[in-house]
Design brief:
alpha/beta, globular, three-stranded antiparallel sheet, 12 helices
């Protein structure tokens, strides 16, 4: 799909209008069964939109063809319904901004990438993993490796010759030496200098799969999402997404990042925490109301842990009550649900 197509897509995408109520989204990746940490972030995203009478989108981020499975997609949809977290647009609720599966939107991402190519915002990167490790400079504070910009210095004829020769390549976007920041709804002001804190980041992998950063920005921009609520582990990706929103001609959304739920080992919940897998909890007699009560209490919305339905927490939702420190979930707490 050409760059012209992307311009037309942007023009043809109907606008939701001004002075509207917020548009938020669930954006699960169907690479496994959801755990309590996923439920936590989904609940708070849902409450933040429902409190304001806004629109909720369910978008399935099945971008990774190797890890996304149909059975996980089916289970995610079933689990959200079981929890009482509904949506207005998405699977089972067609809207004007679909498709709502990233796997069905690959041509749109490719047209956006072609538009960026035409504007000379991106360049091909021919570095192997070994070369990236050897040539990258570590971030001065947290040890994160930044791209050395080795391939950025290649001339257009050199790039074209390498591509014609069949050399595998990814695509990186050129970031400016500029600070991008935003006022997070939970953590306050957060900013990064993209040049020194982020570096030229990937928009497409060597196997042709579009990167998360490109897909999520294109989707949020075209779907009119203006309120993004997600885990605090993703806060450092927000400045680069703001930059990409602006580069593609979209207005960046508001961001609200929430503390992470952690297991007793103080590590972030993941698919390996079997005791916190939603399927495990359901099979062992835990009800949706008990889970909502636990999470509502941890979010500061309830004075005590007691069973409630998700919609009973809507009027109680308040960003000012939400904790900022990560939350430890004890095994004995779950055992008593």
């Amino acid at each position: 799909m050409s760059a012209t197509n992307f311009t037309e897509i942007v023009k043809q995408t109907s606008k939701r209008g001004t002075n509207k109520k917020p548009v938020g989204r669930f954006a699960p990746s169907p690479t496994g069964y959801i755990h309590l940490g996923n439920v936590w972030a989904s609940l708070l995203a849902w409450l933040s939109v429902r409190k304001q009478g806004g629109t909720m989108i369910l978008r399935i981020e099945d971008l990774d063809p190797e890890r996304s499975k149909p059975e996980y997609i089916k289970r995610v949809i079933e689990d959200l319904k079981w929890l009482g977290l509904d949506w207005d647009e998405g699977p089972d609720a067609p809207g004007a901004y679909g498709p709502y599966f990233q796997d069905a939107r690959r041509e749109i991402y490719e047209s956006a990438l072609n538009w960026l190519k035409d504007k000379h915002h991106v360049y091909p990167c021919f570095c192997t993993r070994k070369e990236l490790r050897a040539a990258s400079a570590p971030h001065r504070e947290d040890g994160v490796y930044l791209y050395s910009e080795k391939c950025k210095s290649l001339s257009r004829p050199e790039q074209e010759e390498a591509i014609k020769a069949g050399r595998r390549h990814a695509w990186r976007i050129k970031v400016p030496d500029k600070v991008y920041g935003f006022d997070d709804l939970n953590y306050g002001w957060y900013s990064q200098n993209l040049k020194s804190d982020c570096g030229d980041f990937l928009l497409a992998r060597t196997d042709g799969v579009h990167a998360y950063q490109l897909a999520v920005v294109v989707d949020d921009g075209l779907m009119g999402v203006d309120l993004v609520v997600r885990g605090a582990d993703l806060i450092d990706s927000s400045p680069r997404q703001i930059f990409l929103h602006e580069t593609l001609g979209f207005k960046p959304p508001m961001f609200g990042h929430v503390p992470l739920l952690k297991g007793e080992d103080a590590t972030r919940l993941s698919k390996r925490h079997k005791s916190l897998d939603l399927g495990h909890l359901r099979e062992n007699g835990c009800t949706a109301e008990k889970l909502m009560g636990l999470l509502g209490y941890k979010a500061g919305l309830l004075d005590k842990m007691e069973p409630v339905k998700a919609d009973e927490l809507i009027e109680r939702f308040d960003w000012g009550k939400l904790p900022k420190e990560d939350i430890i979930i004890l095994d004995k707490t779950l055992a008593n649900l």
